[in-house]
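Page 47, continued from p. 46.
Same chain as before, 163 aa.
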Amino acid sequence: MKQNESSITSLISAFSRAYHSQHDFPIIYDDFVAKKLISKKEVSDISKNMIQGIQFFNSEIAEAIHNKPEKILKWITQVQLSPTPLARAAYCEQVLSNEIKLGVNQYVILGAGLDTFCFRHPELKNHLEIYEVDYPTTQEFKKKRLTQANFVIPNNLHFNGCH
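Result:
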């Protein structure tokens, strides 16, 4: 990551979650908020870069569907980009749900990027303190995106920088 720049990983991760929520079935992790934090230009640019990079991922697939950009994007997101992060997020949130029932009252998200847990679960605002840890520039970027998307940062969401 370059100094004083937000992480591109945070954008690509949000793109992946948003794409899955909008285009995949079954949905294993519905991040219906992520799409609100990414601009149309960023979605277009990330999509274009993924489509153009198909050779890197699989030359046989690239050959078979070279003139079908939507199929290429779907393949890349479903096979290369999304499976592990989506499964990890779904698992973590399921474990957290169980722990909340047992009385946990804090949740720490390391490398939070454009995580949307707090905004997808406003019902927890009086029961769970959420601490997002990331680089200060990424956190400022996220705060800016939240403001642009008309989200209000709730009192139970805390940003903690790392260096």
